[in-house]
Amino acid sequence: MTWYRWQIRQSHAETLAHFYRPEDRTCRGYETPSNADDDAEAAYQWADDRQSEQVQLCVDMLPAEQRAAISTSMRNKESGRSVWSSGRAGDQHATYQAAKERLFPMLVSRHLVRIEVVA
């Protein structure tokens, strides 16, 4: 879900950039004072964003139908309902499962998922 929310923020920011300036020229360079909690939250957000970028690189290597299945599944999970579907995903569940199987070794190779052996 962290990756999905990051992806939505990126898409929204890109869309807004076509219509609005990212900053007001009169306030350029101003930084809002922060406290330790804000700094810690910003650090966690930075780490989540870097991790999401790596996940996106892996997702980009999947075929279009698997990317569509993942996106549809994430949208349903975000809403808490199973109302979204995609004609590009074919058999939604089977395509999603195949995408997860293909993604897993990519995520492991980028150290985004760790395999623990239980003895």
Class per helix and strand makeup? mainly alpha
| Low-pLDDT segments | none
Order of helices and strands: HHHH
Radius of gyration: 18 Å
Please report which band the strand proportion falls in: under 5%, 5-15%, 15-25%, 25-35%, 35-45% or over 45%.
under 5%
Mean pLDDT: 85
Q: Could you give the distance between the termini?
A: 30 Å
Give the CA-based shape: globular
Number of helices: 4
Task: Give the helix level as a range of percent.
Answer: 55-70%
Sheet of most strands: none
The overall strand count is 0
Word description of this protein:
The chain has 119 residues and is an all-alpha fold. It has helices spanning 2-17, 36-60, 64-79, 92-109.
Keywords:
globular, mainly alpha, 119 residues, single chain
Task: Lay out the secondary structure.
Blueprint: H1 2-17, H2 36-60, H3 64-79, H4 92-109
In short:
With 119 residues, the protein is an all-alpha fold. The protein has four helices and no strands.
